[in-house]
Amino acid sequence: MSESLTTKQVAEHASVEQGLYIIIDNSVYKMDTFVDEHPGGAKILKRVGGKDASKQFWKYHNESVLKKYAPKLKIGEVKEEAKL
Ligand code: HEM
Q1: Are 48 and 22 a contacting pair, CB within 8 Å?
Q2: Residue 11 Cα to ligand 1 middle (Å)
Q3: For residue 48, what is the enclosing H or E element?
Q4: Alpha-carbon gap, residue 35 to 8, rounded angstroms
Q5: Residue 26 to residue 52: CA distance in whole angstroms
Q6: Coiled-coil regions in this chain (predicted)?
Q7: Predicted ipTM of the assembly
Q8: Bridge partners of 74?
Q9: Is 28 touching ligand 1 by the criterion CB < 6 Å?
Q10: Separation of alpha carbons 11 and 53, rounded Å
């Protein structure tokens, strides 16, 4: 089940109550169920809700983290035209 979302739609899910969507590279992750399990803490994730967190993500993690969690957390992709 992979959705195509605009950055505006992602921004509408900025809080845990709204699903806490974040963008890493071109993919959208729904973080609400993971936020309390996140080894880096809930606070830091809540701060990037609804936004592109690629820069912060790659600062603290590597590819293996995405490989492991994408099947559980990834819900879709950012629509190409949304970035223009
Ligand atoms: C799909 C999204 C994310 C997943 C699945 C995830 C998962 C994890 C995991 C498994 C760890 C433990 C360390 C490791 O195994 O590398 C970790 C640590 C951490 N994460 Fe995330 N994370 C995500 C997004 C983010 C974002 C967006 C930020 C920052 C805004 C962040 C900040 C941190 C920090 C600061 C640590 C602690 C690093 C340390 O103690 O050295 N994470 N995360």
Answers
A1: yes
A2: 20
A3: none
A4: 22
A5: 9
A6: none
A7: 0.94
A8: 29
A9: no
A10: 12
